[in-house]
Amino acid sequence: MSEGAARVPAEGKAGIDWTQTSLGAQRDWPPALATIYRLMMHSRQPMFLAWGEELIFLYNAAYAPMLGNRHPEALGRPFRLIWSEVWDELLPMVQRALAGESTWGENLHLVLTRHGYPEDSWYTFSYSPAHDDQGRIAGLFCTCIETTRQVLAERALRENEGRFRALLDAAPAMMWVTDRHGSCTHLNRSWYAFTGQTPATGLGAGWLEAVHPEDRQATELLFDEAVRNRAPLRVEYRLRQADGRWRFAIDAAEPRLDAAGAYLGHVGSVLDITERREAEERQTLLAREVDHRAKNLLAVVQAAVRLTRAPDVETFSRTLQGRVSALARAHNLLAKESWAAVDLLAMLTGELLPFLGEAPGHQGRATLEGPSVALPAATAQPLAMLVHELATNAVKHGALSVETGRLRVRWTLDAGRLRFAWTETGGPPVAGTPQQPGFGTRVLDGTVRRQLGGRILMDWRPAGLACTLELPLTSQAGDAAEETGLTWNAPG
C-alpha cells in the first residue's frame, strides 16, 4: 500500500479486479477516494461515486437494484457507458457537478433499459463534487432514490381524482371534496350555480360564507369534528342562493380513504330540503289543527246532546243526527281541502241539499247569490252549524215547511268581513219573536257573537224570518271561544 493509502471495506474487494480499471488496486487508492467509498458501502441509502477522468462507477448494495441486469458488471465501468441511453440527459448535471456546483433533481423522468426493454422510471437525486486529497474535483458523488412507484401512484391518484371530479361535476346535487386537513379542494358546478360562488371564493373555507351567519359557527364546529375524528358528517343549515334567498339544506359527507385505508379527506353532498321542511311543517300544523278541530267538534257534539230537547226518542235522535251531520259535512270539506279553506257556496249547497231534495241555485225553492269566498277552517264549521240550524227551523216552522215557501241567501265580502243575509218568504205567517229561545237560537247567538266575533240580527217578520249577520274572516276565529268554554257554539 502506498503512503497515505486508506484501508477499504472487505466487501468492496469482491466481484471486481480494480487493477483492470484506471483506479488501480484498492491499496493504492488515495485517502479521499477510500473514505468516500467506505462511507458509501456502509450506507443503506442508494449511492454511487464516479471517480477520475473516465468517471469510473462505484456503488453500494442499496443502489444495485436500480441497475437491473446491469449489476454487477457496472462496477468499475465508465459512467457514460452504464447509462448510455440517458447520458445526453444527465450530462448537463454531470458537468455542473464537475464544475463545482451541487445539483438536485426531483422525480426526474428517465427511460431506461434495465431489464431488456425500455421502461419509464423516475428518480430524486443530488450530484455533488467529489474532491481528492489536494482539494481538486476528482469526480461526483450521488445520493438517490427511485420514485417510480410513488410517481405512478400519484399519477393514478390524480387520474382517479380527475375522473372522480368529472363525475361530481356531472351530478345534479351540490357536491364537495376536502383534503385531509379539512380544506375544500373541489366544489362541483351545481354548488357554484346554486350559490353564485366561484372557485376563488368557495374553496378552502370560503364555502362557509354561503352559510347563514346564524348557522355558520355550529356548522363549522361539526365539520371540524368530523375531520378530526375521520367520521361521517350530517348537518342542516340555511344556504344562500345566488339570488340572495335563503334555502334549507342538508349536508352529508363520508371520509374518503385510499386503497391502504389512509384518510384523504371527506366527500359530501348538499341537498336543498326547503320544500321537504315546509311540507313537514305543514303536516305538523295540520296535525295540530286536526287535533284542535276534533276537540272542538267533540265539544259541539256534547253540547248538542246536552241541550237538544224533544218529546220522544225518535225525534231526539233525528234532531241530533241532523246537527252532527252538519258538522260532519263541514269537517269533510275541510279535510278535502287539507284544512286550509272551504268554498262558501260548496258549504251552503252541502248543508241545504238534505232539506231541499234538490240542488239549490237560481231556480227552485232556494236561491244562493254571492261572490266566491274561501272560509277559513276556524269559520267554516261554526257557520255550517249556523246554516243547519236556520234550515232546520225553516223546515219545521218556516218557508221550507210548505211547498210555496222560498229561501234566498245572499252574501258579500268587503275588506275581509262577510255580510250574510238569510231571507225566507211564502211560508206560514210568523207570530213574532219566540218567547223562549231554543237550542238553535242559542247556537246562532253563541256561534256568531262569541265564537266568530261577529254580529247577528234575527228579524221575525210576518212574511218569514230574515237573518242577517256580519263576521270577520280570520284564521284566528274560534280560538277565543275556548277561553269562555263556548268552543263551537256550546252556549247556555
From TrEMBL:
Membrane-spanning segments: none
User: Would I find Phosphoprotein among this entry's keywords?
Assistant: yes
> Which residues are in the PAC domain?
233-285
E.C. code: 2.7.13.3
Q: Identify the InterPro entries for this entry.
A: HATPase_C_sf, PAC, PAS, PAS-assoc_C, PAS-like_dom_sf, PAS_4, PAS_fold_3, Sig_transdc_His_kinase_HWE
The UniProt entry, under CDD domains, shows: PAS (cd00130)
Q: What is the protein name for this chain?
A: histidine kinase
